[in-house]
What does this fold into?
Amino acid sequence: MCANAVVFSQPVAKFYSVLPPPRADMDECLAVLFTGPAKPTVADFKRTPLLLRHNAVRNALLWLKLNHVDYADLVISERNLATYSEDSPPVCVIHRPSDGSENAESLSVNDSDGERGTESGPCPFVVHGLTGGELVTMSYEARIHAAVDVLAYGHSSQPDSIYHNPTLYPTLFPWLYPYGLGGFDNELISTHIDRGAHIKQLLMYADRRFQTDERRVVEVTS
It folds into this structure.
């Protein structure tokens, strides 16, 4: 199988000029859907990875502002942060009554257990999304009921070039380039180094993060 990746730029500066965004703005693009016989409680929320801690968010944003080149002018809004609760998800929560069983049509051939969920430990969750074409004709309420954890923004009409574009890969893989630096053909490289040699250099990092990230390997070699 052979494949190629096409990358389109997004207006990222519009998103992060002030962080975190107001709590009300999050409801326009994200939602959490709980299914079960009863509405979720605070104890249920604590079993999910959906809660945020003010100190953790604040410290993460401060680190980005101090260390990441693209966040140097970031405005950290304490007022917006205060609108988020630490006891409930940062977006609207919708409850859909269910007895915990799956429809027979949605089970795989070798799946004999129609129940989903857990009585203890972390709560399992699934992320669903909508395509841009579907979002155009749907109202806000329709988007909420059609999918959970949806985030959709527009992008440029022209694809980005992989050549002479030093911010491309740091933007695509921020967890691999935590400082926003180190992309191909960046101005901090004092001597000429071809793309192949640069890739080999990255693969030799002691923490092996470039070797073990399958998504980046696919993007670089496509």
